[in-house]
Write a structure and sequence with these properties.
With about 525 residues, the chain is an alpha+beta fold. The chain contains 13 helices and 6 strands. The protein has helices at about 5-25, 70-85, 85-105, 125-130, 160-225, 230-245, 245-265, 270-275, 295-300, 300-325, 370-435, 440-475, 480-495, and strands at about 55, 115-120, 140-150, 290, 330-340, 350-360. Mean pLDDT is about 80; it is low at about 1-10, about 15-25, about 45-50 and about 490-520.
Length: about 525
């Protein structure tokens, strides 16, 4: 007995639904290699120079290294750069864009369904229709329904590899943001130390000019009394003029450093000059600073972490290229109602639908796919080399920075001892000059040596502070969980997305899709 039409329609729909379910249930696998494990760090003996005074591997590395200098104005400048530096703003924008890209990649895991409507008025060949006995009048077509464009089943994990690539690229952007934090904060610290060092050098020159002015007055009194010669007076004036001639160069250096600080802090030079115009001492450095455990270096350095993420991304691209040469199954379908009049759009008898899978296998791509696979493998090898190179560079940077800090620390002690000796000699030389035992030539020579010793001592203290900044930068200091998450929260406030979970400093950023769901 024949089945009723409605029952047959239901059975066909059930058959089609079972077919689609079977296609969706096909097991998927990911072709292509997984990223190699993180390379082992070099041995501890290769990480730094032999143990020396001034550094301690037992003490941890402080992310906020500038607080070791105990300078509130430097703290304020760092905070200002965090808020206003445009390089940091651009890096944060790249992070947001990268995580939005993760959402775009993940969307390919699911079919796209849309709602559409159509209207058309058609006029066909009147002569042909009249000859065949068909009504030649124009007619309307109204239609609406839902449709699913061709959606490729991720049989070989191509989309999953693309998601891996997108997440690794987003992780790289996070590390580049951290690297930007390290770099900007180190530049602010180094430039601030430069300003204070030049200001102290200027103060040394000013004190020497005042001392030479007093010597000139003494020689002038002797000259008026007929005791000293015109040559003695000319020598004092010449040396005073020579010292004064150094002031413009020092002032130019101060102005240039303040202008650079203004750029780093996102303000104008005049405002920065008002803030730093009054000279203050060079920041003091602790006698002993920590370098942490050598094995932790590669976990702290953002450039090494970024290179690791780049390697993961490049490896994922190999699987995408390999999947392009394998068979693919796509599913498409639509359901709509069409009628010649608007009133017919509510009649389910005017329904129509299509649904079904399609298979495609690139049998002869002309060598394109093999070439693309080879290309991606070569790019992954290059990324691996850059990752290893970043580790080697990190070790070299830390070794050099540690040596510089140790030597700068020793240089401060030596320069201070030399200054104390020069001050004693100058005091004795002035006493002898005032007693008439020696002439002005001896006093001028001694005062010149004292000026050089004072300038050298100021430069040594500045170099020690600069070496501390360089050492902390080489250690990957200058970023922490709170800093990056605060920056992410501020950026997400405008973008309407949540990134703080992804910006966790513990290992590789999270790869779950929940953090990017709001970006789709």
């Amino acid at each position: 007995m024949p089945q009723p039409r409605r029952q047959r329609g239901l059975l066909r729909a059930a058959h089609y639904g079972a077919l689609v379910s079977a296609v969706l249930a096909l097991p998927s696998c990911k072709v292509g290699p997984d990223a190699p494990p993180a390379s082992d760090p070099p041995p501890a003996t290769a990480m730094v120079t032999p143990p020396r005074a001034g550094v301690s591997p037992d003490a941890p590395v402080s992310p906020r290294w500038w607080e070791l200098l105990g300078d509130p104005q430097l703290d304020a400048l760092i905070a200002r750069a965090d808020a206003n530096n445009q390089s940091l703003a651009a890096a944060l924008g790249s992070v947001r864009a990268a995580y939005a890209g993760v959402g775009v990649s993940e969307s390919d895991l699911w079919p796209t369904v849309g709602l559409g409507a159509q209207y058309a008025r058609t006029q066909t060949n009147i002569a042909q229709l009249a000859a065949s006995g068909v009504n030649p009048d124009p007619y309307n077509l109204f239609a609406y329904g839902i449709g699913m464009p061709a959606w490729e089943i991720d049989l070989w994990g191509s989309v999953q590899r693309q998601v891996e690539f997108a997440k690794a690229d987003a992780g790289k952007q996070v590390e580049l943001l951290r690297d930007a934090l390290v770099s900007v904060r180190a530049q602010v610290g180094a430039t601030y130390v430069q300003v204070r060092t030049l200001q102290e050098k200027r103060a040394v020159l000013a004190r020497n000019i005042a001392s030479l002015a007093a010597s000139r007055d003494a020689v002038k009194a002797r000259y008026d009394a007929g005791v000293a010669t015109a040559l003695d007076l000319a020598r004092v004036e010449a040396q005073r003029a020579a010292v004064e001639a150094q002031l413009p160069q020092v002032d130019a250096g101060i102005a240039a450093a303040i202008a650079q600080l203004a750029v780093l802090c996102g303000t104008n030079p005049s405002e920065m000059r008002a803030a730093l115009g009054n000279a203050k001492p060079i920041p003091e450095v602790p006698d002993v600073v920590g370098i942490g455990l050598p094995a932790d270096l590669l976990e702290r350095r953002p450039d090494v972490r970024a290179a690791r993420q780049e390697l993961v991304a490049a490896t994922a691209r190999i699987g995408v290229a390999e999947a392009a040469g394998l068979p693919s199954i796509s599913v498409s379908g639509n359901f709509y109602i069409a009628a010649n009049a608007v009133s017919g759009l509510g009649d389910l008898a005017n329904k129509a639908y299509t649904i079904g899978p399609s298979l495609y296998w690139p049998l002869f791509p002309g060598g394109k796919i093999d070439a693309q696979v080879s290309q991606q493998k070569a790019l992954a090898e290059a990324a691996l080399a850059r990752y290893r190179g970043a580790m080697i560079e990190a070790v070299g940077d830390l070794s050099a920075a540690t040596s510089d800090f140790v030597e700068a620390r020793a240089g401060v002690r030596a320069s201070q001892a030399a200054l104390e000796s020069a001050q004693r000699v100058r005091m004795l030389a002035r006493q002898q000059f005032e007693a008439g035992v020696t002439d002005i030539t001896m006093l001028l020579d001694v005062e010149r040596q004292e000026l050089e010793a004072e300038s050298a001592a100021a430069a040594a203290r500045g170099a020690r502070a600069q070496a501390l900044v360089s050492r902390c930068k080489a250690l990957g200091g200058g970023w922490g969980d709170a800093d990056v998450e605060r920056a992410a929260a501020e950026g997400a406030k405008d973008a309407g997305i949540e990134l703080s979970r992804e910006l966790s400093a513990t290992g590789v950023p999270a790869t779950d899709s929940s953090a990017t769901a709001g970006t789709r």
